[in-house]
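re the bet — no i am not wrong, look at it urself. input seq straight from the record:
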Amino acid sequence: MDNSSSIKKEWVLTGEAFTKLLSFLDADPERAGEKYETARRLLVKFFDWRGAFLPDELADETLNRVTRKIDEGDAIRDFINYCYGVARLVFLESLKRPDSKRESLEDLEPVLAAPTEPPNDDRQYDCFDSCLETLPAEGREVILQYYQDEKRDKIDHRKALAQRLGIPLNALRSRAQRMRDRLEKCVSQCMEKKSA
C-alpha cells in the first residue's frame, strides 16, 4: 500500500476557491467584496485585542481556512460566527509557535523612538525620518508617543494613549511592536541603500 496517498495534501487558496467564497457571501460581487473586507477587519480586531503577533496574517489564515471549507462544500449558516470559531483555533495555534514568544516592548531599548537629539549619522536620521513618513498617521502617533516619558509617567501616558485610541493596553503594545518592527526594517533597508 502506498502511504503517500494517505497523507493529506496541503490546501492552497486558488482564484476559483476565492470566487466561491465571494459568491457565498453575496450574489453581487461588489457587496460580496464589502462583506469580505468587513469580516477581515473584524478578525484583525479579534486578534489585535488578544495581543496576537501579526493579527493581519492570522486574519488571512482564518479566512483561508473558511474559504477551504466553503470550497469543499461545507454548509455554513452564520459566516461571521463561523469565522470567529475558526479564529479562536488559529489564535490558540499561534500561541504555540516559536515566533509568538517575543520580547515585550518594556524589555527593549527604545532605539527607534523619536530622537531627542540628532543621531551622529545624518543618514540614519534621514532614514528614520523618511521611514516614519511611510507609516499611517495613527501608526506614527503610536510609535512616537509610546516611548515618551519615564517610569510612572510612561505607564500613565500609555494608558491614556490606549484610552484615547479606544483599544486595550495589550492591543496598544501589539500595535507599537508592529510599528517598531516596520520602522526597524525600513531604516535597515534604507541604510543599506545609502551605504551601497
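see?? The two ends are 57 Å apart (CA to CA). told u. also Helices lie at 15-25, 29-49, 55-71, 79-96, 122-134, 137-146, 151-165, 169-195. so pay up
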